[in-house]
Amino acid sequence: MVRGSVACLAAVAVLGLGACGGEESQDADEPAGTYPVDVVKATFPAKQRLADASVLEISVRNAGEKTIPNIAATIESGDKSGEATTSGNAQAFAEVSEQAGLADPSRPVWVLDAGPRGGVTAYTNTWALGRLKPREVKTFRWRVTAVKSGVHSVRYKLAAGLDGKARAVLAGSGNRAPDGTFVIDISGEPADARVGADGKVIKREPR
Question: Best exposed site among 28, 190, 199, 203 by fewest CB in 10 Å?
Answer without folding.
Answer: 199
